[in-house]
């Protein structure tokens, strides 16, 4: 008998600010999904975009996860220490004719409708003042989401030769996340619905590398009173530093999970253990309308 593949999940925040209620939803959902399957839960700090990073935010995020009882397995992976792996991935794609240099400006692409048209694909540009684009030969037009079922992609986005190495020398998110998820052996990705759109690009990269594609589950987004998702850009309040249990309870309600009435008598570890035991991802709502009780949950 062949042993089934062990479950490996992950939470991968960017250090652009402290965790807020919306990011707690992603962290808690991925944690409970992993623990309910007796799997491994990893943490990765996606610090590959220095202009967007806040000094000290990465260590604050790790402290917040520990305060909220979300303890990870193994060492934290830092993307800032993975440049050699990304360069190797870029070299592989270039050597196999799966990428090319592009000097097109953002304004030119906006003028032609917002999606790149492959203009530089056969021009043979060198690396000087150029981005690297994937030669999109295996577009993914739809995928199965464990919560949402079949998800249809924007066909223009799915077929686009997207950037995998930026003109400014930074590695693109889609490349780094695929290389690292494969390296960490991630079998299932549980994350917020704001990342549904790039999923097909990431799946296309898996196909180009010949790597197995993980499963995906995209959680509903917490929104503020204006209907916008809670985010660092929208100045969502950071998770409070006091008793984390009421916030965990709010997050479980948000995910439509069973909550014991006696939760105030439980320790944080016992509360999370019960959440794992009663975890039912099939009960998670696909989308949640604006609700002040959730948008103000950390206060």
From TrEMBL:
Listed binding positions for Zn(2+) are: 102, 104, 116, 120
Cofactor note as given? Binds 1 zinc ion per subunit.
Enzyme class, spelled out: ligase
Q: Which residues form a coiled coil?
A: none
Which residues of this UniProt protein bind ATP? 232
Pfam families (UniProt xref): tRNA-synt_1c
Print the keywords alphabetically: Aminoacyl-tRNA synthetase, ATP-binding, Ligase, Metal-binding, Nucleotide-binding, Protein biosynthesis, Zinc
**Cofactor(s) named in the record:** Zn(2+)
Q: Which InterPro entries match?
A: Glu-Q_tRNA(Asp)_Synthase, Glu/Gln-tRNA-synth, Glu/Gln-tRNA-synth_Ib_cat-dom, GluQ/Sye, Rossmann-like_a/b/a_fold
**Which Gene Ontology terms cover its molecular function?**
ATP binding; glutamate-tRNA ligase activity; zinc ion binding
In this chain the Glutamyl/glutaminyl-tRNA synthetase class Ib catalytic domain maps to 10-236
Q: Does the keyword Nucleotide-binding apply?
A: yes
Please report, in chain numbering, the residue ranges of the motif 'HIGH' region.
13-23
Binding positions for L-glutamate?
10-14, 46, 173, 191
Please name the GO terms of the biological process aspect recorded for this protein, alphabetically: glutamyl-tRNA aminoacylation; tRNA modification
Query: Any idea what job this protein has?
Result: Catalyzes the tRNA-independent activation of glutamate in presence of ATP and the subsequent transfer of glutamate onto a tRNA(Asp). Glutamate is transferred on the 2-amino-5-(4,5-dihydroxy-2-cyclopenten-1-yl) moiety of the queuosine in the wobble position of the QUC anticodon.
Protein family according to the UniProt entry:
Belongs to the class-I aminoacyl-tRNA synthetase family. GluQ subfamily.
Against HAMAP family, the record matches this protein to:
Glu_Q_tRNA_synth
Which protein is depicted? Glutamyl-Q tRNA(Asp) synthetase
Classification lineage: Bacteria, Pseudomonadati, Pseudomonadota, Gammaproteobacteria, Enterobacterales
């Amino acid at each position: 008998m062949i042993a089934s593949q062990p479950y490996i999940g992950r939470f991968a925040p960017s250090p652009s600010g402290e965790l807020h209620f919306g990011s707690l939803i992603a962290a808690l959902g991925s944690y409970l999904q992993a623990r309910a399957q007796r799997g491994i839960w990893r943490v990765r700090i996606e610090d590959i975009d220095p202009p967007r990073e806040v000094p000290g935010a990465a260590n604050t995020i790790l402290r917040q996860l520990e305060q909220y009882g979300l303890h990870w397995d193994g060492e934290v992976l830092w993307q800032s220490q993975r440049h050699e792996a990304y360069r190797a991935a870029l070299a592989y794609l270039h050597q196999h004719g799966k990428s090319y240099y592009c000097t097109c400006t953002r304004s030119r692409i906006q003028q032609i409708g917002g999606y790149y048209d492959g203009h530089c694909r056969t021009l043979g540009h060198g690396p000087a003042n150029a981005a690297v684009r994937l030669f999109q030969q295996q577009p993914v037009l739809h995928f199965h989401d464990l919560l949402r079922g079949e998800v249809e992609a924007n066909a223009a986005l799915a077929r686009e030769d997207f950037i995998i190495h930026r003109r400014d020398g930074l590695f693109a998110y889609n490349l780094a996340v695929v290389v690292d998820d494969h390296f960490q052996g991630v079998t299932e990705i549980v994350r917020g619905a704001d990342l549904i759109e790039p999923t097909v690009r990431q799946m296309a990269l898996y196909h180009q590398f010949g790597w197995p594609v993980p499963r995906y589950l995209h959680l509903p987004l917490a929104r503020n009173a204006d209907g916008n998702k809670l985010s660092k850009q929208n100045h969502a309040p950071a998770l409070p530093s006091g008793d984390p249990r009421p916030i965990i309870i709010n997050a479980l309600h948000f995910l439509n999970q069973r909550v014991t009435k006696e939760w105030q008598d439980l320790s944080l570890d016992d509360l999370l253990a019960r959440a794992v035991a009663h975890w039912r991802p099939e009960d998670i709502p696909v989308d949640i309308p604006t609700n002040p009780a959730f948008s103000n949950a950390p206060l």
